[in-house]
Specification:
Structural class of chain B: alpha+beta
CATH architecture of the largest domain in chain A: 3-Layer(aba) Sandwich
Oligomer: heterodimer
Strand order of the largest sheet of chain A: 2-1-3-5-7
Number of domains of chain A: 2
Shape of chain B: globular
Bound molecules: iron/sulfur cluster
Order of helices and strands of chain B: EEEHHHHHEEHEEEHEEEHHHEEEHEEHH
Number of helices of chain B: 13
Distance between the termini of chain A: 30 Å
Number of strands of chain A: 7
CATH topology of the largest domain in chain A: Rossmann fold
Order of helices and strands of chain A: EHEEEHEHHEEHHHHH
Largest sheet of chain A: 5 strands, parallel
Largest sheet of chain B: 4 strands, mixed
Number of helices of chain A: 9
């Protein structure tokens, strides 16, 4: 075993998230012999990110003023910042709260004595600091974590989830409606769109190995847009998904459209939370794993 | 007045402890949950059927419990009854969660306290003997990975499961996959027991060193486990009195009649009480409320515990040992289940949406977790999450005070206090992301 103290150092800063990203990281154990974990409050008791830390992984969104402070302070000391998980990249699931009525409820709670000041919405970290690499996923798989730490360029993944999914798209099985789970059965091996599920695997970036669709749950897009869409506006994806459904099904276009724009876009909690109201510059695709 | 503030690590989420001291006496000890994401607000208006995918994201540590509780709440509102096989697969899912969680709490969160290390990845500076420390991290990760693998097998996605749906689960478990998992579990259970034995010894040594098992005053206990053996998917909550008599038994929809809830201005999480008394949930509560584990190795450890500490047992550091017993139980029970056919019938039934109100409960690693939804026009009109960590808040603060009183005197503050604060909080394995959502 190499002398641990010689190994490159990495740190993990957890902002407002669910710790799922961290749990995924500790499901990978290859890093144990290749890196020194110097800061990660979930598993290590150290007070702050030490100087000479090479890589900082940041998970979670920026939800309160302590998050901003901790983020800026940690970033100062490191060479490379990796935004991990959809919360850090787009605000993630809690960005569903980016609506007027919800903002109001947060404002009502925001200034409690003793407690960090809540921001009206959850922000991605690149609203405050520069990011060198984005690792989307909710959470990214351990395999993706290892790739981000060790060899981001060498990671082999398909462009979209469909390719990794392997379910067959059939020509002659055209659902009339988006029936979803109400029908009480998911057929194996056949594309979920053929079965009337709203699956967005066709525009979602690959790399997760289609862990949801293989056992029979539609992809909800947690890895975010594929390279073909990542630098474009969200309307382009909407159109693309709409096209896929119109081509493969007899579902009335309005029904598809309504589902795609379902209340608070909750089906697409990941792909669109950040982009639904526009205003954010796209992330360059060569920085996204 | 002196105010001591302790940041916390090796727990899930963002929290800290504040202790007020006046003339060498502890005036108050507060456990402050300092993050909030607002799930109960932003899920309003969400299509009800999406809840099982959204709510696991409340917490990446307890995701599976939220996933299943959510599905049960929806089924309760829609009057849907899943097939037996679906319930079996959900139980496996919860067992996977239990393995992952208890292994994390034991080996990653609390083992470092027992040997004076900052983390299991930094054991080289610890008091553990070199042979042990070399392999501790790798062995511990291996055991918790079994939990993750079981979650993946039974739940699809590995952190935020997707397979439980209204009416059942999306797919069964094929014989080949079950056999593979079974083999891995059989190979790993010995490592789990071995680590737990080491953990037990380290705990005894720590007890010698610090001279206490922590707050050992009687308390009330709450869990939804079975009377004769553990259950994680039941629909009854029970409360045990300090002397071991059962005081109440009720379904989740009646929780308000039995539990009082209060908000505090210093924490985003409130706290609940039973008849104004300190309440405890989590492993020790379950062990106190159940007769046996019903599996041989776990029962062996349980007998050892009972012989030494009696039943109900109250010292808080026993929460940690109880987690070990449950870890072994979860292995044995999952092995039992995987040895049987898990692909024998359809895994789900059809349903249709309607307006309604539903409660769903599971016994999460931290205690009974309840989801309560009101559905209108297929959308969530209101959602409420009743979180087990909140039941423990009063108990955590009482135990912190006990620790404070031990280490603070008019002559000064013993530096051991900081470590004691960490040990106390970790004994309860609180989950802040859940407690505040
Ligand atoms: S991206 Fe997903 S897994 Fe990661 S912190 Fe956010 S909700 Fe949790
Ligand atoms: S649309 Fe979904 S189910 Fe169909 S192939 Fe793509 S990922 Fe698989
Ligand atoms: S299948 Fe879709 S939702 Fe599931 S992990 Fe992959 S990208 Fe995320």
């Amino acid at each position: 075993m190499p002398d641990k103290k010689q190994l490159p150092k990495f740190a993990v800063l957890q902002l407002s998230g669910c710790a799922g990203c961290e749990v995924s990281l500790i499901n990978a154990n290859e890093w144990v012999d290749q890196y020194q974990l110097v800061y990660m409050p979930l598993v290590v008791s150290t007070a702050s990110v030490p100087e000479d830390t090479e890589i900082l992984l940041v998970s979670g969104g920026v939800r309160n003023d302590e998050d901003i402070y901790n983020l800026k302070k940690a970033v100062e000391k490191v060479d490379r910042v990796i935004a991990v998980g959809t919360c850090a990249i787009s605000g993630g699931v809690s960005n569903l709260g980016d609506r007027d009525d919800v903002r109001q409820m947060f404002l009502a709670q925001s200034s409690r004595h003793h407690l960090p000041h809540l921001l009206p919405k959850s922000h991605p970290i690149d609203a405050f600091v520069d990011v060198d690499l984005y690792l989307p996923g909710c959470p990214p798989t351990p395999e993706l974590f290892m790739a981000a730490l060790i060899d981001p360029e060498g990671y082999e993944a398909s462009g979209i989830v469909c390719v990794e999914c392997g379910r067959k798209k059939l020509k002659d099985m055209r659902p009339q409606h988006l029936v979803g789970f109400q029908q009480g059965e998911v057929l194996p091996d056949i594309c979920l769109i053929n079965q009337g599920y709203l699956c967005v695997g066709s525009s979602t970036r690959g790399g997760c190995r289609a862990i949801c669709t293989k056992p029979g749950h539609p992809c909800v897009g947690c890895r975010g847009p594929s390279d073909a869409y990542i630098e474009k506006e969200s309307s382009v994806w909407f159109d693309r998904i709409q096209n896929v459904f119109e081509r493969m099904t007899d579902i009335p276009p309005e029904e598809i459209k309504a589902a795609l724009h379902s209340p608070q876009l909750s089906l697409f909690l990941f792909q669109f939370t950040d982009y639904s109201e526009g205003g954010r510059p796209p992330r360059p695709k060569d920085k996204v794993l | 007045m002196t105010i001591l503030r302790f940041p916390l690590s090796r727990i899930e989420g963002h929290a800290r402890v504040e202790m007020e001291i006046q003339d060498g006496a502890v005036v108050s000890a507060q456990f402050q949950a300092i993050e909030m994401r607002g799930f109960r607000y932003f899920v309003q208006g969400t299509p009800a059927e999406q809840m099982p995918v959204i709510v696991p994201r409340i917490c990446g540590v307890c995701s599976t419990a939220h996933h299943v509780a959510s599905v049960k709440a929806l089924e309760n509102a829609l009057d849907v009854k899943p097939p037996r096989l679906a319930n079996e697969i959900r139980e496996l899912l919860l067992l996977g969660q239990l393995i992952q969680n208890q292994a994390t709490s034991l080996f990653i969160f609390t083992m470092p306290d027992r040997v004076g290390a900052s983390s299991i990845f930094h054991m080289e500076d610890s008091e553990a003997n070199p042979e042990q420390q070399l392999s501790l991290a790798q062995r511990a990760l291996k055991v918790r990975q079994i939990g993750t693998k079981l979650i993946t097998l039974a739940g699809g996605q590995f952190i935020h499961p997707v397979k439980a749906i209204i009416g059942g689960v999306t797919s069964g478990i094929k014989a080949e996959a079950a056999a593979q998992m079974l083999k891995e579990m059989q190979d790993t259970i010995t490592i789990a027991c071995e680590l737990f034995d080491e953990y037990w010894d380290m705990s005894m040594a720590m007890r010698e060193r610090i001279g206490t098992w922590g707050d050992d005053q009687p308390a009330y206990y709450i869990a939804s486990t079975g009377r004769s053996k553990p259950e994680f998917n039941s629909d009854t909550i029970r409360v045990l009195g300090p002397n071991g008599n059962e005081r109440a038994s009720f379904p989740p929809r009646l929780f308000r009649e039995f539990l009082d809830y209060e908000k505090t201005d210093y924490s985003f999480a409130g706290k609940s009480t039973y008849e104004g008394e300190v309440l405890r949930a989590n492993s020790l509560a379950r062990i106190n409320l159940t007769k046996t584990m019903g599996t041989p190795c776990a029962d062996y450890y349980l007998e050892r515990l009972t012989a030494e500490f009696g039943k109900p047992a109250h010292p808080i550091l026993l929460f940690d040992l109880c987690r070990g017993i449950e870890l072994v139980y979860a292995f044995e029970r999952a092995i039992e289940m995987l040895s049987k056919d898990l692909d024998y019938e359809d895994t789900s039934v059809p349903y249709s949406l309607k307006d309604g109100e539903g409660y769903g409960m599971v016994e999460a690693p931290r205690g009974p977790l309840i989801h309560h939804y009101i559905i209108e026009n297929g959308l969530i009109a209101e959602a409420e999450f009743i979180i087990p960590t909140v039941h423990n808040m009063g108990a955590i603060e009482r135990a912190l005070k006990v620790a404070g009183e031990r280490y603070i005197t008019p002559q000064g503050i013993n530096l051991e206090l900081e470590k004691a604060v960490g040990r106390v909080v970790r004994a309860f394995d609180p989950c802040i992301a859940c407690a505040t959502q």
